[in-house]
Amino acid sequence: MTLWEQYAPELLIDLYELTMAESYLKEGMSGEATFSLFVRDYPPRRSYFVASGMEHVAELITGMRFSEASLDYLASTGKLTHDLIVFLREFRFTGTLRALPEGRIFFAQEPILEVTAPIIQGQLLETLIMNVIQLETMIAGKAARCVHAAQGRGLVDFSLRRTHGVDAGVKVARASYLAGFDGTSNVLAGKLYGIPIVGTMAHSYVTSFPSEMDSFLSFARAFPDNTVLLIDTYDTLCGARKAVEVARRMAEQGKVLRAVRLDSGDLVELSREVRRIFVEAGLPEVKILVSGSLDEYGIQKLLDDGAEIDMFAIGTRMGVSADAPYLDIAYKLVEYGGRPVLKLSSGKKTWVGQKQIYRKYDSGGNMREDLLCLLSEEQPEGAEPLLEAIVENGERRRAPESLEAVRKRFAEEWARLPSPYRALDATRKYPVGIGRGLQELEDLVEEDRRNEELGRGC
After folding, report:
1. I need a surface site. Which of 79, 96, 126, 400 has the fewest CB within 10 A?
2. Is 439 left (phi over 0), alpha (psi -120 to 50) or beta?
3. What DSSP string runs through 313-357?
4. Domains of the chain in sequence order
5. What is the mean pLDDT of residues 281-303?
């Protein structure tokens, strides 16, 4: 069995989802349920999220089938009955998926998506949906912060070698491009998603030649139309002077040196000196690309300190969202059989029922306030509904969106997000109000549950 064949998406399930399904089946519980996916609170310094991963969820759940090999494995565990195995053999998602379109900005406690389906179907999707949305949304937000910090300079994703698995690597490339990165070093992501691929050379390339100059000249001969030289293998400033000589030789052939890359040392001082060397040589057009354990905080500090940088290659710290490596994401039952339900656990209370998010804008077209309402509540005047049905009756409502369309949507969203919420060290939280109908139903159900569950001698 190959590595790829081992990953059957239908088995991306935590065991407790199967044990609950077993019990639901035995009890004849087949009523329609709604599950809501949301992030409880912001990671440190954050004040927004960027929706990503919905297209992958829609693809996975509409195509989800239990293969005979997967069913044989489940039967072999001895933990499930024959009846459940028979049920899973016929599994098809027949429900509805309402979700934020990818690229939209959203906020804590707002539903990212809601699944309405027979309860076993909705329950079995819990871990798969959480896994997909958590990673891609987390990375899209981290990448958006890097783009903001770069102040219009180029960014490329260099994270693949240190992301948490091969699937994470390609999803990081996609999510970062969605949020405004210009390309990726990840060739597979380039093939899968049409992202521009970018690459230079490694220090091993330079050291494999008799001299640094030999390596530079060889690379320029191989890639005369896209020459980017890594100049810090031995001494950065010496490497820059050699790059000037390479640029002059290329000019004799009608070619230009596109950029140099710095990967170590005092990047502020070195970038300034490298810029000076190229300007004095009459080569101000040569770009300076830097890399090396950077994220939005590193970018901001470099630019605040006066670094001369045109492009950033962002790797590990973005690819694993190093300062905030997970979201407090939850997938909770909010309605079953037409009955609103909620959880009262301390710090983990949920909002009942099927919901809609409405967004209001100010006179300049900027985001002003969101309102979380029951789906059945009347749409507030002048407000935009955000959640859209992308799967109905188990079928996609539309063709998958192109990544370029999603990228454009995010850019438009970002332009409408007021500047206080964009800050890298955000202190203000975007206002999210609660609709009257939702609040009244929440209070009613909470009172009923407290009386029913806590009033029996607890």
Report:
1. 79
2. alpha
3. EE-HHHHTTTTS----EEEEEEEETTEE-----TT-----SSEEE
4. 4-132+328-417 (3.20.140.10), 200-290 (3.20.20.70)
5. 97
